[in-house]
Amino acid sequence: MAFTLPDLPYAHDALAGAGMSKETLEFHHDKHHNAYVDKLNELVAGTEWEGKSLEDIVKGTYSKGAVAQNGIFNNASQHWNHTQFWEMMAPNPGAIPSELEKALTESFGSVDEFKKSFSENGVGQFGSGWVWLVKNADGSLAVTKTENGVNPLCFDQIALLGCDVWEHSYYIDFRNARPKYLSNFLDNLVNWENVASRL
Hints:
199 residues; single chain
């Protein structure tokens, strides 16, 4: 069964007041994400990965230590990453649920310290990539960054929150100001209920 582009969980203009414009979502979701889906379907056709789950493809095609990943991995991982990304944002996201606030405080000292670490890792990711809040196998929380489309599935981690720091994610709204994009993401866009549900 072919992979399909998931609908956004909100209207294209729903995040505009919080700093992510309709134009950004039209390009990022409708064009960039859709291109990954189309290319993935093309690349897996007739291979051992045809019919496998997206998670199995990501884990099975990731090459540890490789400077550049193969095309199937790149498109599968970016399809997975973006599917999570849309769900991790919401219009009027509200407060951080108490259980998540407690976990962040225990792991980072405070919510503000978590946000600082998340932003610094996102800004510090050279070139294209992602910044993540992850849950490790031992239950501990950590902030990580990954290059290109690499994601927590590759390291047997659970992705609680991820932010796309590829330039196409923020250039329309923030030009080259990645720090402003990240602080706006954390302060105005994160669907904290979704993050808490992944704990």
